[in-house]
Amino acid sequence: MSPEKDQIGKLSVAAGLLRNSINLIKPRQTLFIFSHMRSYSTLLSHLLGSHPEITGYAEMHQSYRNSLDVLRLRVKVLMANDYELKGRYVLDKVLHNERVISDAILNSPATAVIFLVREPQGSLRSIFKMGKKVPDMAWVSQPAALLEYYCQRLAELEVLSRRRRTPAYFLNGDLLLTHSRETLQSVSTYLGLHTQLSESYQIFRHTGESGYGDFSETVRSGHIIREEKKDDAHFEPQILAEAWDAYERCVNTLNKYCEVNPVTQDVSLVEVPAELSKKALEI
Predict the structure, then answer these.
(1) Is 67 helix (H, G, I), strand (E, B) or coil?
(2) Where are the extended beta strands (E) located within the chain?
(3) In this predicted model, what pLDDT tens digit does every residue of 5-18 receive, in sequence order?
(4) Using DSSP, how many helices (H) and how many strands (E) does the chain show?
């Protein structure tokens, strides 16, 4: 980029921020999706970000230590959303343990939290497939490293749920596909939205771009796709058994500390296959 174009770009950003200076400091709530990679977090954030009371649809890759970080989020979301900041929630999703969430932010009255978890077989296969397409994520093609990420992230979600002094909301990602209407109705109620979340969503400026979430063709459809494509990724039984063990622990903890999607009480969620239980592998 030439120096002239770079200068014009900086001036344009400055002008956009100046126009929205009052809007940036307006009272709003921060809505966090605490999750892991390939949990349907991009789908959920797009469904949420398409609602008139919520702005934000992508991962902003930052920590939250104090109110300045919340303001920084608003600036990033404003720029990613074509300088529009609407509604009463500003959304970010946090998928990695290196992102610090202070107690002051986690337990602020202006913070709402959704925990999102997906069962391990679908998660690990999807992360593995993504790693083959992204050079910077070649590490996820190593089963041991992939397992370590998944288990450590679920353990951190447990910690966050215990640190949260008021109940957050726990959502099993698979229910977004299998019980969409009931699940979105439940999320809408938790957030106090005036209208229910829709099963369709907007295509935003960075939808489908690497670094902002899911970059597959699926996310560009603008609606929930229930038939997931299968892939040929296979993992050793011991790897899957450890992942299922971490998943079960996390789900039990989130069920204890969070407000749970009532749909889970009426349907049988995916359970650990008997042949992959640790007890079975030890025989």
Answers:
(1) helix
(2) 29-34, 54-55, 89-94, 111-117, 169-172, 259-260
(3) 555 445 456 566 76
(4) 11, 6
Distance separating alpha carbons of residues 272 and 255, to the nearest angstrom? 17
The predicted-structure confidence for 91-121, as pLDDT tens digits, reads as follows: 999 999 999 999 999 999 999 999 999 999 9
pTM over 0.85: yes
Q: Is the pLDDT of residue 2 over 90?
A: no
For CA atoms 139, 244, 186, 71, give the dihedral sign: negative
The SS3 call for residue 37 is: coil
SS3 34: strand
For the chain, give every domain's residue range: 28-271
Q: What is the pLDDT of residues 191-227, one digit of tens each?
A: 999 999 999 999 999 998 888 888 888 899 999 998 6
- Evaluate the CA torsion angle 262, 179, 146, 62 in order and state its sign: negative
CATH fold group of domain 28-271: Rossmann fold (3.40.50)
Percentage above 90 pLDDT, the chain = 65
Length of the chain: 283
